[in-house]
Amino acid sequence: MIPDAATLGLFVAAAVALLVVPGPAVLYIVTRSIEQGRSAGLVSVLGVHLGSLVHITAAAVGLSSLLVSSAAAFNVVKYLGAAYLIFLGIRALITRVEPGEPEVRAAPLGKLLRQGAVVNILNPKTALFFLAFFPQFVDPDAGSAALQIVFFGLVFVCLGLVTDSLYALLAGTAGNWLRSSRAFFAVRRWVSGTVFIGLGVAAALSGSRQRH
User: Fold this and answer.
1) How far, in Å, CA of 212 to CA of 210, rounded?
2) Contact in structure between 166 and 160 (CB atoms under 8 Å)
3) Which domain holds residue 182?
4) By C-alpha distance, which of 175, 44, 177 is closest to 112?
5) Residues 6 or more apart from 11 whose CB is under 8 A from it?
6) Where are the beta strands (DSSP E) in 76-201?
7) Are 160 and 26 in contact (CB under 8 A)?
8) Which of 78, 89, 100, 207 is the most buried if burial means most Cβ atoms within 10 Å?
9) What is the DSSP letter of 136?
10) Count of domains in the chain?
11) What do you get for the CA distance between the two ends of the chain, in Å?
């Protein structure tokens, strides 16, 4: 069930590239770290990735069921996922986000854990992302699709805990600049767009090669 080294290496590279680009979850973590300190930021990281585990479980169950019922339908979902990643990249490139000062009320650490999980669980974009991202690395001939997705999901969460925790730790000193810097938002937009488009194109080309 464990993927080969090449596939795992490609997944890790793609996951890290996606994780280091600040999205809504990272900006939420940064804001919490600024408002309530590093402990609050780290607890928020744990909460966000508890929410990720819920999405990963749903993706594993749904995508494995789809593969069992129809390999062709699974491939359709895979290519739609690649197209969705490209769409996210194009939208990131053309959307300008102005720096702002989001207001976040102080909350107990236990509440931050729950809040981080709920924020991620109730985000439909996160569910769509996992449904688009994981099928690109699943090999139907390598065994259970569900176990492969769970494996990739756990790797993704572990990587996310590291990268998001770094953001939480750095936010105390650099967070005020990050939230107000136009340069930060401009770089985020271009890097995010390029990464998503590149991943989507690579997934589509990989699927084309597999057909021959």
Assistant:
1) 6
2) no
3) 5-211
4) 44
5) 3, 137, 152, 155
6) none
7) no
8) 78
9) G
10) 1
11) 24
| Sign, Cα dihedral of 4, 74, 155, 129 | positive
**Letter for the amino acid at 4?**
D
CB 1 within 8 A of CB 60: no
Count of CB atoms within 10 A of residue 61's CB? 13
Lookup: tokens for 54: 């819920």
Number of C-alpha atoms within 13 angstroms, CB side, residue 98?
A: 2
Element (H, E) at 193: helix 182-211
Rounded mean pLDDT of 14-18?
84
Q: What's this model's pTM, rounded to 2 decimal places?
A: 0.69
* Tokens matching residue 176: 């005020």
**Residues 159/174, Cβ–Cβ less than 8 Å:** no
Give the separation between CA 142 and CA 184, rounded to whole angstroms.
41
pLDDT digits (tens, 9 = 90+) for 188-210: 667 667 766 776 776 666 554 44
